[in-house]
Amino acid sequence: MIKNEFHGSDKEAVAARYGIDEKDIISFSSNVNPLGLSEKFKDEMADAVDCITEYPERDYASLRKALSCYTGVDPSHILPGNGSTELIGAFIRCFKHPHSLIVSPAYAEYERDVRLSGGEIRRYELNEEDDFGFCADRLTDAITENTDIIIICNPVNPTSTALSNEGMRSVLKKAQECDAFVLVDETYVEFSDMKKVSSEGLVREFGNLVVLRSMSKFFSCPGLRLGYAMTKDEYLIEKINSMRDPWSVSSYAEKAAIVLLSDTEHMEESREFIAKERNRVCALLDELKGLGLKYYSPCANFILCRILKEEKSAGELFDYCIERKLMIRDCTGYGKLDGSFFRFCFMDEKNNDMLIKTIKDYLLE
To answer: How many CB atoms are closer than 10 A to CB 18?
Structure first.
C-alpha cells in the first residue's frame, strides 16, 4: 500500500503513481458540484472571449454589484480575489505575528499562512465523540484576550458539520469582547441549509467578521480562480488592497462570475440535487453499519466516514477504489484524524451507487 497524501485536485499525480489514464478516474475527492457548469454559462461565455482584450474594472464595480445582489451584502463591503486562497493569505498578513485559534480538522492553508506571518496556532478540536458537532459554548470559552484571529471553515472540511448562525453570533460577541477577528470560510455553504448556516447576514452587524466564499465548488469552476470576501471593516479592505497586486481577478473571471450568479435556475437545481443525493447516500451507508462502517451526518456536499474494523484502513480503501478508477480522500493526518477516516463527495446517482458498492465489497473482503 502506498501512503496517500493527495489533494482533491491531484488526479494527475494519482494517475501517474497508479499507472491509470487521468481521464478514466472518477474523482469523489474534489468536492465540486457534479452538475457542472450551467448551459447558460456555456452559451453566454462562448461569445464573451473578447473581454480578455481589455483590463478588468480596477474596482470591480460590476462584479461587486452582482455579488451584492446574490448575498445581500453592501457592494462596498465585498472584496473579489483570485480564489479564496489568495484572500485567506491576504487577510492573515494584515496581522503581525497573529495569535490564532483554528477550528480543526481544517484546510492546511490556514496554518501555513499563520506560520508565514510568524504567528502562533492554537486548535479548537472537534471531537469524534460528539460526531464532530459544534458546541458554541466550548468554542467561545476557547477565545481569550490573547486571541487575534479565529478561523472557522463552515461547513467544516472534512467533517461536513456546521456551526449555526446563532452559534456564530455567540462566537462573534465573545471575539468582540477580546478584540479578535473571526474569519469564516464558507466555501461549501451553498450546498447546505444557508438560512441556518451562512454568516452573510451577520456582516452588517459585526465589524470583526470576515466571510470568505469561493466560486470553485458550488459553481463548478475551480480553474476560474475566483473568490470574494465580505466584511463591514472598510479599513481592512483598503489594507488588503494595498498589500496585493492590482487586477488579481481577470476580465474573463469577472465576466464569468456575473453570468454564473445570474443563473438562479441552475443554482436551485444544484441545491435540490445535492440534498436528494445526500439523503439517499446516507440511507445506503446505513446498510453498511453492520459491516464496520460509521459516517457522520453531513450538511454539505461531502461526507466523512470511519472504518471500524481494525484490520482495515482508509489507505487500503483508497488503493482498492483507485484500482477501480474511483478516487476518494484518505483523511489520515487531516488534523488529528487517524488512518480509519475517509471522505467522499456526492456525484451523480450512478457513480454514487458504484462507490457505495465498492466500499461494501472492500469491507466484505
So the answer is: 15
Between helices 251-262 and 61-71, what is the axis angle to 10°? 30
Q: Which amino acid is at 314?
A: A
Contact by Cβ (8 Å): 4, 333: no
Q: Residue 62: in which H helix or E strand, if any?
A: helix 61-71
If one counts every other C-beta atom within 10 angstroms of the C-beta of residue 245, the result is 7
Write out pLDDT tens, residues 7-63: 445 788 888 889 899 999 999 999 999 999 999 999 999 888 899 999 999 899 999
Rounded CA gap, 183 and 198, in Å? 13
Distance CA 83, CA 170 (A): 29
SS3 288: coil
What does the pLDDT look like over 196-249, one tens digit per residue?
Answer: 999 999 999 999 999 999 999 999 999 999 999 999 999 999 999 988 888 899
Between CA 305 and CA 296 the distance in angstroms is 6
| CA pair distance 308, 226, nearest whole angstrom | 39
How many Å apart are CA 76 and CA 242, to the nearest integer? 16
SS3 314: helix
Secondary structure element (H or E) that encloses residue 302, with its range: strand 302-307
Q: Is the pLDDT of residue 156 over 70?
A: yes
Q: In angstroms, how far is the first alpha carbon of the chain from the final one?
A: 16
The amino acid at 18:
Y
For cell 458504484, the residue is 354
* Rounded CA separation 50/82 (Å): 20
| C-alpha Rg value of the chain to the nearest Å | 20
The pLDDT value recorded for residue 1 is 40
Nearest to 88 by CA among 186, 232, 198, 206: 186
Q: Which helix (H) or strand (E) holds 265?
A: helix 264-286
Supply φ then ψ for residue 122, to 5 degrees. -120, 150
